[in-house]
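Try it yourself: sequence plus magnesium ion, in.
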Amino acid sequence: ETGRVLSIQSHTVQGYVGNKSAVFPLQLLGYDVDPINSVQFSNHTGKLLLSLHSNRYPTFRGQVLNGQQLWDLIEGLEANDLLYYTHLLTGYIGSVSFLNTVLEVVNKLRSINPRLVYVCDPVMGDEGKLYVPPELVSVYREKVVAVASMLTPNQFEAEQLTGFRITSERDGLEACKILHSAGPSKVVITSIHLDGSILLIGSHQKAKSQPPEQFKIVIPKIPAYFTGTGDLVTALLLGWSNKYPDNLDRAAELAVSSLQALLQRTVNDYKRAGFDPQSSSLEIRLIQSQEDIRNPQVSFR
Ligand code: ADP
Ligand code: MG
Ligand code: MG
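Structure, out:
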């Protein structure tokens, strides 16, 4: 029921994205998590947000791990017989060489545990814009998707991976089928933006040759912009889908319910402090929401 997760994601000294957003909730759900920080930055870069709110976090400092340095850490673990993991989790990856090394890590971990579950969040962009080098898209599409067990793209990323435009619920369900045929048995499109709501679509293909079981969750859009929510939702989906391996819909309800409670708390805290929640990106109240993560009240189905 629990597991050992190797989580390869970014790290920010201040703020919650990447591993800072994923490790704590997984630990709260009972997992041993070993983080490898693919970058260490002073603060989050805001990605596309920088262009929207250029007064926010105008700069950042830090270091980027390259593929060779990632492999060095893997070799260090292997030399000490410490490479047994039940799950590999990856998020934002900034270069082709690092992503190719991640593929080697998948092979290595599967040679030690053939049942390793690889949860891949193919972070590439949002709202019609790429925030990774364009060469990365084809590596995800041609190599990474094939080895992933669960994939959690947003709408834009699902379009990049399938070459298929998604403008409706039906398109989302179809995109999931295309992705299943390329590899992963579980696919969650974490957000499709339709008018005032966000649609999350999940799809579980339990056996090849069988149609997938599919579901949707409608989430009212909160008028604010948060950072780190994508990283958090993927971590929660990993955590809950491992506890309910045959009920991706149940896992998604739990993940979305705790996430929405956290986002509501975040907005309320900002309002109480006199900030306009729409004036900049909001830092999620992760630590303050630990009870909602451990014991979500299911309010989204
Ligand atoms: P990313 O694009 O970073 O991968 P998403 O935009 O898909 O992540 O957001 C992940 C989840 O966070 C969504 O499934 C949704 O539950 C929640 N979320 C993010 N922004 C909002 C918002 N403004 N209102 C309500 N829920 C949100
Ligand atoms: Mg998004
Ligand atoms: Mg995402």
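One thing you can check immediately is this: The first helix runs from residue 19 to 28.
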